[in-house]
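Run log, item B.
One chain of 296 residues. Sequence copied directly from the ordering sheet:
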Amino acid sequence: MRPLFSNNEIVEESHSTKYPKISWNLLGKINAGNFIPNKSVDYFDYLEGISHYDFKDSFPMLSYYIASVSKLASNKKLLKERMYPIFESLVDSVVLLAEIYKIDSSKFSAGNKSEGNKIVFDSQCGDDVTTFVQEWVDDLDSLEIEIIDPYFTVKDLEFIAEVIQKNPSFTIKILTSYTNYTKLKQLSGENEIDDFIRQFWEKQITSAGMPYFDIIFCGVASLGNTMPIHDRWWLSNSQGMTFGGSINGIGAERISSISKMLPEEVILVRQKVTGYLNKTNKKHREERIKYLTVTA
């Protein structure tokens, strides 16, 4: 049986409303059990064809694609290969739109500009940044914070101590690049890294008590033993913040920003980083990931 429409026809008449209407009608027939999609249709080319349509007309065609693939896929592996990429693209698009609508670049200016959920700052605004993050910490419903920062240094403990007000009841889990383990090892000399961290806290911050620190060093050889994550986040249950730069960059000459995250943004980030925090992600692009954990 000849397909009801070809991919070339879709591309050549991408402004036509005929194909969205046909797709919508066929979708109804599939759902009613009155139509079986044609196996000879090249559905990957079909996807490329509907990319020419606007959202209103591509929606029924995309829905038809999803329904057709689910009917024709002979096993779960094939279904995953054909379905996952499209849903991943949708999620990426939603995140991108959220970022576009959240940020108004016309509001950016040198100096500190805090608007409740975001602070934009330069080298003169260290105290304002500390206050902003401290207020976020004060609102947490948990004493556990997960920090994802590829460029963590031992000096960052001073900022962490300040925003948690040196509360030893906190548990801080830090995910950072494996290269930072080498740097800490050089700084610690003959001492073990966990002892070095405890000594740093006692001498530079306070001897009254120290939070529980769990530092996960993560690296991939082809990336120079850095972690395959570039962004910086602080997470605590459903709450989170996005850091435009590393903690040790606060007070530097560059203008940067920190933003509080929406719960749905935290969920998306957790989907990306939990496998590294728990060390269950074993490979990055078929290459083994190296982990090392230091508890202090």
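Observations after the first pass:
- The beta strands are 113-114, 118-121, 144-148, 171-177, 212-220, 232-236, 239-243, 256-260, 283-284, 287-295.
- The chain has two domains: 7-99, 105-295.
Flagged for discussion on Thursday.
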